[in-house]
């Protein structure tokens, strides 16, 4: 996988698919789409077509062939009819520029990764859902118990809308890349489509191509929507894109058709808007049509004026009939509203937002590295947002005065839908609504500033327009600087493990790693000890892990652990060697894979863990050793693993090594800016952008040390222009030096009659084994 494939090949494939299917929509609607709206129309058709095929397991495999056939038909028929229009270079240039702004946080990292890591784990579920949709649709038949299945049951099994995943899944299957690496390119592609609809909406109002391009370029990257993108907000961007496209289609749906005498002319005119409505329902559930409800009501009044009572009624009937027809696969599933749960309805539910968003954030200007937090320059943020609000009112007024009904309907619809959702929903849902509506408010503000500059107050309007543009770009530059990027090398290793050991499950991960258990290890039927799971992974003390936590294998009860044939364990100085029945089958840079035989030769009567998190080794009491020997009985054995002590530096200044040898150098926590570990002034290794969940370590490398005291230094580079290097540094430490005794510590087996030999020795654990 490379940046080239993720950020060039995938978007080109998506663009070709949308171009072909959009041309088909144009043909079916009587050739009334402008060139800029071909791709958004094709996107909507891909959503609707995908919903139709993925409704059933039997037809899910037809999703990609159907999409390719529709695109080929559109391109072929258009070529035969010589109806290719001249592309708008300004619209194309702005779309590419918007795409590059969204691409910057990932592309400039140099790796095909994705944003939002450890901030929100929903992306892991979206990836899992998309993979399953392409193979089996909404069906969960045939899945073994696993976190992958649990995640799917909690979402697709509960009627969660999946429309936003389908164009991504179609283009991803064609390119053959794992969906994890094309997630952010897909959202960036949708943002480019949003800019195309914006250009069409304000073409009449802002006549200058240069000025219009500036307005569209800035509006399409509203700070709150951009922040949600860096959080994995695929539905928010998809919904905004479709609402804007629906508004752009309003004029086609309500204006008279020159060939009105022809049969079906009204249906052809209503088709694009019906397609937009059906696609939006697939993305947000039919309840999501609230986002275009006011727009449709306004369109009905417009049609009444343009077509008269009878014509408006006929056109509305066609629109309703076509929309219902296109939504039949969605309605047939019985999911008429999104799942109602605590996060949707509870007025106190903020979840990962930390706190309710500030109402002014809906204006699309919020100079903060994390949209959930208040800006450090709060006065400037308020000034910019309030100025945007005043300009938005001016923009709506000027749009009404200029009879720009499409853009007026778009802005008013977004405002009323956002207000309704904020009134009835939780702060969590309100935040999503604000993100979806924010480009509309920002577009209104930019139109107001542009028209002031162009028609009334050139100096003042120009200054306000420049302030808005700088404010939005500043906001997004801060978000770019503070982005949380997924560690590509670590997740790529999980992807390889999933491919190499497919079918060798069930598997267990003891760290919180949703991308592993929900996606990369899906073919191992993996479960996470602190994740969604079928089996309760009980600990020795009878409890289970809280979400997000980690456990050593010694903390997991033996019966629970042995349920899993394969263990995928993060390399860590706190990790014990798994019980003796497991053997190391793969040693990686980040993960070790351990497996037990399908039918163990003999059971483990008892596994006695020793040590703790700081040092998973200790000297057992002789009474405990003898008790295990008695349990093993005549002919039985006592198994053990020797474990040298870790050396820990709490203050990150000096560390004392008890004996000479090779040591692996770890630090507890996460790293953003590059951090270099030095021992006695010599560099051990350096790490950058390694974000970890709870109780995980950063590995700096291996070094040979003499016994005695050593000077420790962790040197952090200063902030740079690279993505993800902003914000306060995450906590790091203590430093832990773990003796390197080989990848697979040797299990020592002693006859039960001679178990006293283990007394006084420092061990990882002890086991009682019966006679063979």
Q: What structural category characterises the helix and strand content?
A: alpha+beta
What is the radius of gyration?
30 Å
Largest sheet: 5 strands, mixed
Helix count from the secondary structure assignment: 24
**Contiguous uncertain segments of 5+ residues:** none
Beta-strand content estimate: 5-15%
Within the largest sheet, what's the order of strands? 2-1-3-5-4
Q: Taking all residues together, what is the mean pLDDT?
A: 90
CA(first)-CA(last) distance: 48 Å
How would you portray this structure in words?
With 772 residues, the chain is α+β, with helices and mostly antiparallel strands. Helix content is 49%, strand content 12%. The longest helix has 37 residues. The strands form four sheets. The chain has a five-stranded mixed sheet with strand order 2-1-3-5-4, with helices on one face. It has a four-stranded antiparallel sheet with strand order 6-17-7-16, covered by helices on one side. It has a four-stranded antiparallel sheet with strand order 8-15-10-13, with no helix packed on it.
List the SSEs and their pairings:
Blueprint: H1 3-28, H2 38-54, H3 57-60, H4 63-81, H5 89-107, H6 122-136, H7 147-154, H8 166-175, H9 179-201, H10 209-219, H11 223-229, H12 234-254, H13 265-284, H14 290-326, H15 328-332, H16 342-345, H17 378-401, H18 405-424, H19 427-456, H20 458-481, H21 488-500, E1 507-509, H22 514-520, E2 526-528, H23 558-562, E3 566-570, E4 583-587, E5 591-595, E6 606-609, H24 622-632, E7 637-642, E8 647-649, E9 654-657, E10 661-669, E11 675-679, E12 682-687, E13 697-705, E14 708-716, E15 732-739, E16 747-751, E17 763-769
């Amino acid at each position: 996988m490379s940046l080239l494939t993720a950020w060039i090949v995938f978007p080109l494939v998506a663009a070709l698919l949308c171009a072909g299917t959009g041309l088909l929509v144009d043909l079916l609607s009587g050739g009334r789409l402008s060139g800029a709206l071909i791709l958004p129309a094709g996107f909507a058709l891909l959503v609707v077509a995908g919903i139709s095929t993925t409704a059933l397991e039997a037809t899910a495999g037809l999703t990609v062939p159907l999409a390719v056939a529709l695109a080929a038909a559109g391109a072929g028929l258009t070529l035969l009819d010589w109806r290719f229009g001249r592309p708008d270079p300004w619209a194309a240039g702005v779309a590419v520029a918007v795409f590059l702004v969204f691409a910057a946080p990932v592309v400039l990292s140099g790796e095909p990764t994705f944003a939002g890591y450890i901030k929100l784990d929903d992306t892991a579920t979206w990836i899992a859902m998309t993979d399953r949709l392409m193979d089996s649709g909404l069906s969960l038949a045939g899945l073994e118990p696993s976190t992958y299945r649990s995640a799917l049951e909690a979402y697709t099994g509960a009627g969660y809308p999946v429309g936003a995943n389908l164009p991504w899944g179609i283009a991803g299957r064609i390119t053959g890349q794992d969906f994890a690496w094309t997630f952010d390119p897909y959202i960036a592609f949708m943002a480019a489509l949003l800019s195309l609809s914006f250009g069409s909406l304000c073409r009449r109002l802002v006549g200058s191509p240069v000025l219009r391009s500036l307005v569209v370029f800035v509006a399409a990257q509203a700070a709150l929507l951009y922040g949600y993108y860096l959080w994995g907000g695929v539905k928010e961007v998809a919904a905004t894109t479709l609402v804007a496209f629906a508004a752009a289609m309003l004029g086609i749906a309500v204006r008279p058709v020159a060939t009105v005498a022809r049969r079906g002319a009204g249906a052809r005119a209503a088709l694009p808007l019906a397609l937009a409505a059906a696609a939006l329902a697939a993305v947000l559930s039919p309840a999501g049509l609230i986002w275009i409800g006011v727009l449709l009501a306004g369109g009905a009044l417009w049609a009444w004026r343009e077509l008269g009572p009878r014509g408006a009624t006929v056109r509305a009937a066609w629109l309703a009939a076509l929309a219902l027809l296109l939504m039949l696969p969605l309605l047939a599933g019985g999911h008429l509203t999104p799942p109602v749960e605590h996060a949707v309805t509870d007025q106190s539910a903020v979840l990962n937002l930390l706190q309710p968003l500030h109402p002014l954030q809906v204006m699309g200007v919020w100079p903060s590295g994390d949209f959930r937090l208040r800006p450090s320059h709060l006065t400037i943020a308020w000034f910019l947002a309030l100025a945007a609000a005043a300009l938005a009112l001016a923009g709506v007024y000027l749009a009404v005065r200029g009879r720009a009904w499409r853009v007026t309907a778009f802005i008013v619809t977004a405002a009323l839908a956002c207000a309704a959702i904020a009134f009835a929903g939780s702060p969590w849902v309100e935040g999503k609504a604000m993100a979806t509506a924010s480009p509309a408010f920002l577009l209104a503000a930019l139109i107001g500033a542009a028209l002031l500059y162009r028609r009334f107050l050139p100096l003042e309007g120009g200054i306000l327009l420049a302030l808005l543009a700088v404010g939005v770009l500043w906001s997004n530059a801060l978000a770019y600087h503070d982005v949380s990027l997924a560690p590509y090398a670590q997740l790529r290793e999980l992807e390889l493990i999933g491919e190499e050991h497919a079918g060798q499950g069930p598997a267990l991960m003891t760290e919180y790693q949703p991308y592993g258990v929900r996606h990369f290890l899906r073919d191992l039927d993996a479960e996470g000890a602190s994740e969604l799971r079928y089996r309760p992974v009980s600990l020795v003390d009878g409890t289970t892990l809280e979400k997000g936590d980690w456990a050593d294998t010694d903390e997991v009860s033996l019966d629970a652990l042995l349920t899993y044939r394969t263990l995928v364990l993060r390399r860590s100085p706190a990790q014990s060697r798994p019980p003796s029945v497991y053997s190391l089958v793969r040693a990686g840079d980040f993960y070790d894979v351990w497996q037990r035989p399908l039918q163990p030769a003999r059971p483990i009567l008892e596994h006695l863990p020793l040590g703790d998190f700081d040092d998973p080794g200790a000297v057992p009491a002789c009474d405990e050793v003898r008790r295990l020997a008695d349990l093993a009985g005549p002919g039985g054995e006592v198994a053990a693993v020797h474990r040298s002590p870790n050396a820990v530096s709490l203050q990150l200044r000096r560390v004392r090594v008890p004996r000479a040898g090779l040591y692996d150098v770890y630090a507890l926590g996460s790293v953003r800016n590059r951090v270099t570990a030095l021992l006695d002034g010599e560099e051990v290794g350096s790490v950058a952008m390694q974000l970890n969940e709870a109780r995980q370590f950063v590995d700096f490398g291996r070094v040979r040390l003499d016994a005695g005291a050593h000077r420790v230094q962790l040197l952090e580079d200063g902030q740079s222009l690279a993505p993800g290097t902003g914000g306060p540094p995450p906590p790091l430490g203590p430093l832990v030096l773990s003796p390197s005794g080989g990848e697979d510590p040797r299990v020592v087996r002693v006859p039960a009659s001679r178990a006293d030999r283990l007394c006084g020795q420092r061990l990882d654990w002890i086991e009682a084994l019966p006679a063979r």
